[in-house]
Amino acid sequence: MHRSTLREITIDCDTDDLEAAASFWSQALGRRKIRSEGPGSENYFQLEASPGDIEINVQRVAHPSRVHVDLETDDVEAEVQRLERLGARRVEQVRHWWVMEAPTGHRFCVVGHSGKQLERDGNVWE
Amino acid sequence: MHRSTLREITIDCDTDDLEAAASFWSQALGRRKIRSEGPGSENYFQLEASPGDIEINVQRVAHPSRVHVDLETDDVEAEVQRLERLGARRVEQVRHWWVMEAPTGHRFCVVGHSGKQLERDGNVWE
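Structure tokens for the assembled complex are given below, as produced in the milestone run.
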């Protein structure tokens, strides 16, 4: 048994000016931008979320700009295998997450996490 | 004064089999798929949302597959003008909404709506 949920969306920006990109989305969506911390943080801003709001990241990328969804799970391997059975495929493992491609062609991520919020609002998969 | 908020994301699918596309995302995200009603409904499924969840649409499109965000507002023209001042541009008007392009290159929509939920959780713009 494991859990997963749609926790966040990431706005991938092929840009030399991540701060300007994050500023646009911050003002457009009415959410304060917060510089991320930790490994790779120079490529991320988070947009502030109220409790229950979907989280939004603005990320600098080296591929064409797009928006992708991030699934949060307490068991990355089990969730990736569940999604493979639905027709998705593994693209690349990055630190503690997997980049996958849906049968519809969309790239998305499966990110490992555990915590009370996932226990409360995650879908439970056998 | 007008209001806006991020109400939904739309998974645009360049596909001949919208039902299969919606089924994948329904199962991946753990949300029941619901056939939309009204004009253009043959091109849409909604994924069921609990109160407070971001809404998700799966849409058949005739352009490359992508994910886009939809801003909901009680004054489309005022919101479009606010976003233009932030650097976005108008692309196309479709029924009661505008397709816009962010300075980061992402297409997104500004959709007209009014109601108690927007009064409760919308950002207020002067």
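DSSP finds three helices and nine strands in chain A. Chain A has a mean pLDDT of 94. Further analysis is deferred to the final report.
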